[in-house]
Design a protein that fits this description.
Radius of gyration of chain B: 24 Å
Largest sheet of chain B: 6 strands, mixed
Distance between the termini of chain B: 42 Å
Strand content of chain A: 5-15%
Order of helices and strands of chain B: EEEHEEHEHHHEHEHEEHEEEHEHH
Number of strands of chain B: 14
Distance between the termini of chain A: 22 Å
Strand content of chain B: 25-35%
Helix content of chain B: 25-40%
Radius of gyration of chain A: 31 Å
Strand order of the largest sheet of chain B: 6-7-8-3-9-10
Largest interface: A-B, 26 and 29 residues
Structural class of chain A: alpha/beta
Structural class of chain B: alpha/beta
Order of helices and strands of chain A: HHEEEEHHEEHHHHHHHHHHH
Number of helices of chain A: 15
Shape of chain B: elongated
Number of helices of chain B: 11
Oligomer: heterodimer
């Protein structure tokens, strides 16, 4: 036991002290934040301004067509399809005579072709302008119309899960997001740390240090020490990421104006209602509150607990297999490719199933994939995000965890047997058939 | 005989090959023991059983008077395998410390011993270097230090001189003698016969998984002598066959003769004197271990066996 501890320490410290680990750990969150920032920036600046000349001979929608930040409608005289560009317009929209019954073509001519989203938005604007105009023509006053428009935003769906006597707010899109993110994270880390284990084993073999060490410790101890040590590196990395994300977001929150922070705090106290006599909460405060509120509806202790369990369980399951493959490789790392395939296949397949399950957590495939240990770490995380026991019953979760534990005990045992033969054997091309023989032969 | 290690009817069978087939021998405490054999004879399998890497299929290993217990006896053994190496990216001092601790030494104890050996071999400046910075010979020296660091009772060296220049080879050789003198028992596995002849007290030759020779170097040479004598004569004197001997090879001033059945060396001298041939030198020519090795191994399928793949 003492020796396993020494091996774990070495595996852990050589990797954590490595510059690459530090760079990956601190750059990854920055990279993700940077990526989000860059895509947000691009989506803002990438928007083009359209200055549209409207030819509306009957003046039918002149009063009702509304401008937006992106689209500016104007109604100049003496503009037609031949001269609109000269007069500084990007597009020209020709409103036909409206008969109030048929669908009619509205012609839009542009200097540059227009994106689908923009076209749709213009269509909607024209339609609602027509609608407004017709309502006004029917004798409805502007102020009545305004209050009707507001009514169209009154309803907001809030779903609750019934849990015996209590009910709890549920949020499907949040569950989907959490499920997807945690499934993806497990998938990526299985690959990163699994191949790290494999490369570590290959290094020991090609360096010819394996036999030197095997004369001091059992092959199984060496393999487990490596797996546990590298797993600890993975957990350290997660921990640092969580600390980084929390400190980055709280630092970002510190940059909010004081009154917004104050409003968010009072919204939190009063469960989303501004206290009487208080000023109206600003839009940004409401957005922040809503975001925080949505996040808080998830059962975080359960999700984080399950995540850690499935990360560790899945890691142990796959790392042992990767170690076995590493032990069979001779001088040429290319040899690993063909043997790795049967390990990477189920990983990729599980990821695909996870994508599916994030939308439909209760199909038969979702159920079986969350029980079978090859895919359960990813798939079960996607399902657990929808809530226990509402989406996943307790027995399913327990069964999934038990099969995963049994699964990694089995793969570790199997790999241990392959490993102890493979690590000392040089100059032999290993096939899967041989591996299976190794696994079941006597020592 | 006070045996440190006794092997009794040791067997290890692979799927279609008897890698070690009923081998028994004793190794005396404080001796330097040569384990010889052609490639694929079963030496490495034998050593891996002695070091606890493999379990025997049958037979017994007695170490220091007790049945061998892989977990607790590991500390009594220092094994330098033929396939050896170190972590390339790890600092040499840390690496030695790690491997010593794996052998069961405490950190303080290990540090002290490493310092002693590094000083002895003038390796003190290596501590913070990495193995990838060392030449092959240097890393071989380091490997030797790591093997003997924890003062094992039994030191097993598989081809210890490969890759070493004569100066460093002598350094290691002297250290082997010194360790044996201090009471360590050394198993020396090689197929370089001249080294064995020089270093070993006792040898065992294995071939095709079986022991075919066991004894001291001197005894074995006696056992395989072919009664060949070298006779130096005065210039211009040539010998011819006589009843007591026949000529094997004649060179100027020196003739190799084989004494015929039923005669002894004095008969040969008497006949030479009778022939009035002036003899200036006379000595027996013993076969070299190399000759014995080739004589015993040749004609068996040892060479072919090295290429037989184990049908698994």
């Amino acid at each position: 036991m003492n020796k396993i501890w020494l091996i774990i320490q070495r595996e852990y410290s050589t990797r954590v002290k490595n510059k690459r680990f530090l760079i990956l750990t601190f750059l990854m969150p920055l990279l993700i934040v940077g990526l989000i920032a860059a895509s947000t920036y691009l989506s803002i600046t990438g928007v083009e301004q359209r200055n549209i000349a409207v030819v509306d001979p009957n003046g039918f929608i002149k009063n009702s067509l509304k401008n937006t930040a992106q689209i500016n409608f104007s109604f100049p005289a003496n503009v037609d399809t031949t001269n609109y560009q000269k007069q500084g317009f990007t597009d020209i929209l020709i409103i036909p005579k409206f008969d109030g019954v048929k669908k009619t073509d509205y012609i839009l001519r542009s200097k540059k072709s227009m994106g689908l989203m923009l076209q749709e938005s213009i269509t909607n604007k024209i339609n609602s302008a027509i609608e407004d105009q017709m309502l006004q023509d029917a004798g409805i006053h502007q102020n009545v119309l305004d209050s009707i428009h507001k009514a169209s935003q009154f309803a907001e769906l809030k779903a609750y899960e019934d849990k015996g006597s209590t009910s709890k707010e549920s949020n499907a899109s949040l569950a989907m997001g959490i499920g997807y993110a945690s499934g993806l994270l497990i998938y990526i880390t299985m690959f990163i740390y699994g191949t790290m284990v494999m490369r570590g084993v290959m290094e020991e073999k090609t360096n010819r240090i394996a036999e030197v060490i095997i004369s001091s410790v059992k092959p199984f101890e060496l393999m487990m020490g490596k797996i546990i040590g590298i797993g600890a590196v993975g957990l350290t990395q997660f921990l640092l990421w969580i600390v980084l994300i929390i400190s980055l977001t709280s630092a970002a929150a510190g940059f909010l104006p004081a009154d917004v922070q104050h409003q968010v705090a009072s919204l939190q106290q009063s469960n989303g209602q501004m206290a009487g006599g208080m000023m109206q909460a600003s839009e940004s405060a409401v957005k922040i509150y809503n975001f925080q509120h949505t996040i808080s509806t998830a059962n975080w202790p359960l999700i984080i607990g399950c995540f850690i369990f499935y990360f560790i369980g899945g890691y142990l399951f796959y790392a042992a297999l990767f170690a076995a493959v590493g032990s069979t490789v001779n001088e040429d790392p290319q040899d690993a490719q063909s043997l790795m395939f049967p390990i990477t296949m189920p990983l990729i397949l599980s990821y695909l199933i996870t994508n599916m399950v994030t939308q439909n957590p209760n199909t038969p495939i979702a159920f079986w994939a969350s029980i079978i240990p090859f895919s359960s770490p990813m798939v079960m995380m996607a399902r657990v995000a929808y809530g226990v026991p509402s989406a996943v019953s307790y027995w399913e979760l327990a069964l999934s965890m038990l099969t995963l534990i049994a699964g990694f005990i089995f793969t570790t045992w199997l790999s241990g047997r392959i490993y102890r033969t493979g690590i000392l054997l040089y100059g032999k091309k290993v096939t899967w058939k041989i591996l299976i023989k190794w696994a079941f032969k006597k020592v | 005989m006070d045996a440190l290690l006794s092997l009794k009817n040791l067997r290890k069978y692979y799927a279609t090959q008897k890698a070690v087939d009923d081998i028994s021998f004793d190794i005396e405490r404080g001796s330097i023991f040569g384990l010889l054999g052609p490639n694929g004879a079963g030496k490495t399998t034998l050593l891996r059983m002695i070091t606890g890497i493999f379990y025997p299929d049958g037979g017994e290993i007695i170490l220091d008077g007790k049945p061998f217990d892989a977990i607790n006896d590991i500390q009594k053994i220092g094994y330098m395998p033929e396939e050896r190496g170190l972590y390339k990216k790890m600092k040499i001092g840390e690496q030695a410390l790690y491997l010593a601790q794996l052998k069961g030494l405490s950190k303080a104890d290990a540090t002290e011993k490493i310092k002693y050996w590094f000083k002895k071999f003038e390796m003190e400046s290596w501590w913070n270097k990495k193995v990838e910075d060392l030449s092959k010979g240097m890393s071989q020296k380091l490997q030797f230090v790591i093997t003997v660091l924890h003062e094992p009772k039994l030191i097993i060296l598989d081809e210890p001189f490969s890759g070493l220049d004569p100066v460093n080879a002598n350094l290691i050789k002297d250290e082997i003698y010194a360790l044996a003198k201090k009471g360590a028992t050394i198993i020396f596995s090689t197929h370089r016969m001249e080294q064995v002849e020089e270093i070993c007290d006792h040898i065992v030759l294995v071939n095709l998984g079986k022991k075919i020779l066991d004894g001291t170097v001197a005894d074995i040479k006696q056992q395989f002598k072919e009664n060949i004598f070298s006779i130096e004569t005065e210039a211009g004197v040539s010998l011819s066959d006589a009843p007591a001997f026949s000529i094997v090879r004649a060179e100027a001033g020196k003739t190799l003769v084989k004494i015929n059945e039923g005669f002894r060396s004095n008969d040969l001298l008497q006949q030479l004197i009778a022939q009035n041939k002036q003899v200036v030198g006379f000595n027996e020519v013993l076969p070299s271990l190399n000759d014995i090795f080739i004589h015993l191994v040749e004609g068996t399928h040892a060479n072919a066996r090295a290429f037989q793949t184990v049908q698994e």
